[in-house]
Amino acid sequence: MVIDAQGGTLTLDGTPSTVGVPFDLEIPPGALTQPVALTVTETRTAPPDAYTDFSPVFDLAPHGLALAIPAKLTLPEANAGGWSGAISIYVSTDAGSSYGRASDSYQNAGFAEASLSTIGPVFVGYPRNADAGAACSASGG
């Protein structure tokens, strides 16, 4: 989808993981200075080993695109096990080599939301242990 300075919403629905809750990226007016073709792909890529995932990794492109005003990201999450811990959105600003927790991420009934300032791969999950910290590399470190 091409989004320009007026903003817009990139949506993905109709996939097994987006039934009931679509993937949405709401780009506000002024976040982009020129038209940009944004894509989202639901991948089969596993998250880093240090995380338990509650969604697929969604690949947002073009990787590394900075937004002047943060976008609102809504991701579906599958918490069938009743996990009540700190499920968050994790974002990669380096095309999936490492991920960090979106600082304002929060979980709701069936979805997670956060602000997104840089375009790249995202997923919903939580660290497998306290040592995983706020960020880790895709190789599990």
Q: How would you portray this structure in words?
A:
Helices cover 0% and strands 45% of the residues. It is built from no helices and 14 strands. The chain has strands spanning 2-3, 8-12, 23-27, 36-37, 39-42, 51-53, 58-61, 66-76, 88-91, 98-101, 106-108, 111-118, 122-127, 135-137. Strand 11 (106-108) and strand 12 form a beta hairpin. It is globular.
Low-confidence parts: 132-141
Proportion of beta-strand residues: over 45%
Order of helices and strands: EEEEEEEEEEEEEE
What would you call the structural class? mainly beta
| CATH topology-level fold name | Chondroitinase Ac, Chain A, domain 3
Q: Tally of extended strands?
A: 14
> What proportion of the residues is helical, as a percent range?
under 10%
User: How many H/I helices?
Assistant: 0
Alpha carbon gap, first and last residue: 34 Å
Which CATH class applies here? Answer: Mainly Beta
Mean pLDDT metric: 86
Number of domains: 1
Please tell me the CATH architecture by its name. Answer: Sandwich
C-alpha geometry:
globular
The largest sheet, given as strand count, sense and whether it forms a barrel, is: 5 strands, antiparallel
Radius of gyration computed on alpha carbons:
14 Å
Please state how the strands of the largest beta sheet are arranged side by side: 2-3-8-12-11
Please render the helix and strand layout as text:
Elements: E1 2-3, E2 8-12, E3 23-27, E4 36-37, E5 39-42, E6 51-53, E7 58-61, E8 66-76, E9 88-91, E10 98-101, E11 106-108, E12 111-118, E13 122-127, E14 135-137
Antiparallel strand pairs: 1-4, 2-3, 3-8, 5-7, 6-13, 8-12, 9-10, 9-13, 10-14, 11-12
